[in-house]
Amino acid sequence: MARCLLKSKNLPGEFWGEAVTTAVYLLNRAPTKSLQGITPYEAWYNRKPSVHHLRTFGCVVHVKKVGPGISKLTDRSTPMVFIGYEKGTKGYRVYDPVAKKLHISRDVIFEESRAWNWDSEAQTNTAAPEFEVEHYTTAGPGTVPEFGNAEQMAEGDDPFAAASSSHQTSSYHVCR
């Protein structure tokens, strides 16, 4: 069962321990013939196990970022890989392949049909993206030129032309 869990989402062999632990977790919540159709969990705790939290092993999850340093424009989640259930909590064990760290979180969104592409450099690239910076000059506050709509503007019209001739100019940067 552990081998099937690893192969179904193309996880590397280094996660064999997590796969075995998850397989045992799942088998304890599945009916068995040796206990006349009840689960090992039910035989031990005298109640049926909850199975609504079970998810696909090895799928991509998005873990919510929390804490300081989160501004309005930063990403709110980090893509990671689901590798099991944490004992004694309601949290999920997720692995961050970029940082190579294990996290335990309840704030996750699952993409159960999607597997992590372990060969792709796009998902594991930690280099900062390069931006082309353009400089624009505008007039001071309250003197922003009106753009109108696309039909009113002729090609080649510069909406900032009037503002660039003003004496009260300030500059700002636009990143693409």
Q: What does this 3D model show about the protein?
A:
The chain has 176 residues and is of the alpha+beta class. The protein has two domains: 2-124, no CATH class; 133-149 and 159-175, no CATH class. The chain has helices spanning 2-8, 16-27, 40-45, 121-124, 161-164, and strands spanning 59-64, 77-85, 92-96, 101-105, 108-115, 133-139, 169-175. It has a five-stranded antiparallel beta sheet. Strands 6-7 form a two-stranded antiparallel sheet. The longest helix has 12 residues, at 16-27. The chain is globular and about 55 Å long. The two termini are 48 Å apart. Residues 121-176 have low confidence and may be disordered.
- Summed up, the domain count is 2
- Count of alpha/pi helices: 5
Structural class: alpha+beta
Radius of gyration: 27 Å
Q: Secondary-structure element order, as H and E?
A: HHHEEEEEHEHE
How confident is the prediction overall: mean pLDDT?
77
Number of strands: 7
Q: What characterizes the major β-sheet? A: 5 strands, antiparallel
Unreliable runs:
121-176
Please bin the fraction of helical residues: 10-25%
Going across the major beta sheet, what is the strand order?
4-3-2-1-5
Strand content: 25-35%
- Measured between the Cα atoms of the first and last residue, the distance is 48 Å
